[in-house]
Amino acid sequence: MEILRIIAKTVFFYLLVILGATFVMYALLWAAPGDLTDVLCPKGCEPEMRRELIKTWGLDKPMIVQYGRWLGDAARFRFGTSVSLRQGAPVTELLAPAMRITAWMVLGAALLTLFLAFFLCWRPLRFFSRWLLRLGQFPLVVLSFAPLYILAYWSVMLTSRGPAWLVQQGWLDPKTLGRWRDLDLIPFGQQVSDEAGWLTLIPFFVSMVLLALGNNNLAEQASSLRGEIEHLKGQDFMRAVRAKGASFWAHFLHNLLLPVTQFFSTRAILLLGTVVIIETIMSINGVGWLLWQAAEMRDTPVVLAIALFATVLASLLQMLNEIALKLIDPRLRR
Amino acid sequence: MRARDRWQKGHRPLICVAVALCLGWTMGWAAPPPLKYAEDRAPSSLNPIYADDMYSERASELIFERLIGFDKVQKPAPMLATKWVVGEDKKSITMTLRQGVKWHDGEAFTAQDVDFTIKMMTSQRSQIADRYLAQIIKKVTVSDPHTILIEFKKALSKPERWFQFKIIPKHRFKSGMVTRTDYFSQKPFGTGIFQFNKWDGRKIILRRNSSHWGPKKTKLSGATLQIIPDKNIQVEVLRYGGIDAIIRVRPKDLPTFERDQNVRLYPYSTNDWWYIGLNHKGVFRDRGVREAFVYALDRESLRSAHLGDGQVISGPFSPNDPLYNFSITPRSQDAEKAGQLLDSAGWKKAGEFRKKGGKTLKVRMVLPKSKDSYKPLVLGIQGELRKVGVDVELVWLNDAAWSREIFIKKGFDMTLHIWNFDDLSTIYPLFHSRGSRNYIGYKSKEVDNLLRKATLTTDPVIYKAIYGKLHKILHDEVPYIFLWSLTNYSSVVSRVEKVTIHPFNYFHYVSEWRKRVAE
Fold this sequence. Notes:
In chain A, 70% of the residues lie in helices and 0% in strands.
């Protein structure tokens, strides 16, 4: 019963967050100069046609009414169709593949960040192996201080020589490369076979790594994680566990779940915000890229559906984090 | 049985067929390959009546057909209409439609489809940006499934020119209305030589319509539109054989393709022309200032340095347009004259910039972000105007915001823009004081009268004479700074043969294109 109460309370709180976030997004779109009629009539509409379009799309209604109408439809899982980007395409049809890509990328990058943070705060006991480890950790710290867009451009420039990049981006069919295979055009001497469809996944993985790296504060995150670990080790109950000869790791890992869950969820939420940069630079067909295009074209249903998706995903992560924390630590339930 | 006996005793035809098949296989007589072409961005709609951008227009050209098309010398040619008779008073046209034409879903094409398409294009309820047909069509009568009579509100000089719109299937729209957001825009079907197969992320795949009526069925097995936003990548993909055609090549890429033996460049001229729109409510109310700005710019050098081949224009027509008045020569750059004109308008040089009554000659040039690839050109214009003492402030806006700023708010002094003209377009909306696209606020009674006269005449000679005169007046009055009309180049791999490009309906002759199987 206690757990149900916690879940209900958390869900209610995040429903309010989702409502607020989508409202802010709607208000921003509404306040931006130019509307759908300007996109549909790029050379200027005849006045009567503009009036007709405004009436058809309900643009003459107050903003709150327009938002309420969208919200009512969204509550019934009706997200409508794209109105300018790909007219007539159901928003869900546009969003589903993009959402899959972005969700995997964000979750993958968050996991990778966690792994890198552990790697950075790992301190072996022996002096020599510690120095060896430092050699591996140092470049990672340096890279993590470079802004994301610079890392992305750098990787594009590094790999854009020859046709392999075109294949990786899905612009070129690997079969076409048959006659180029013997030439020295593939970077790093990479051999491309006719069945090299997997090459198109490379930009996805590169983007994931860059997302994990390019967040500027990996070292800071690692040091705070280290602090948590040291703090946990120094706790009285951990000393008691050792003294009693009980399993140290079982208790240690159980209690480490708290900071790790928090770290993972906050990273994932942060990455959700930066994914738009990497997707645009690396030409990944994810939600970020779609959002960019839809906002340019004032495609309100698509923009709002993306805002909803992003807020739901972020809220879900935060909500799971909170629920997990409360389940792990009984003190937090009070 | 010996081999010789087998040959003589009836196995001869079988052996011949087997040999022919083997030969065919080795010589590549497999299915003809599809044509792959690149576009900068995805079409916003594949429904031809809502195809507002060129990407949508080109894609729908492959799927749908018109009543009347064009032959190679741009004269009307039968397409879905096999015959047409214009009424004696030029106020009606009777069309006989082609029999045996099938929609891609197997239904028969009839006059009801034409009637429905016209109704949609003229309806108040449809959300078409330019309902030009509504201004001329009075009534449509379907006499029988293959005959249709169309009556006009006024006499037209060349009525058949108005029937270049594409026909959509009536039976697909049970509600009797075609909306922008109908799924038809994503999964269309028409009567054209290609039929929609699938929209696969960055690709739109069309396959050959095997039941097409055409006597010369296409030699291509299909067409694929590949969306490649980056022009540099388009060039690389074409060079590596990933696509067969780039619609419009940037001038800087022309030398690359000229050196490449596997690619051919096809020049094609459109009726588009570039201009700088001047807001007549500000400093440009004064004709002298407008003329000074024209004299300040070296249009020829700006064009050749930043845009490639083309021709500087003296009025609101492309030199490819029969209405262009060649007796009027564009003004050449003359900074001294520009200075004199500005002086006489009261804008005296005071330091780097000119001043009048303590106010600096500063103009706000508002530009759309989609044209930021023309930044060097804009900076060139800014630099040349600075030389005569004009301070140009450049403001780049998102396209929707630019459209709002220019056409609705009129919050600009100058803007760079291109008018895309097809066979039907007239300059009436641009320069008539009540014209729907006269966003610069230009007013001239003489021009209004001439434009009105041009709409009333059905005599092509008088029509041309009126437009010749209008060209002269608009050149003298300088409502815009008329810039140039460009020669476009399309790059197509040499494996694709018999390529002919229509000036404003790119794929109109695609049924004649052939693509050799790769060696």
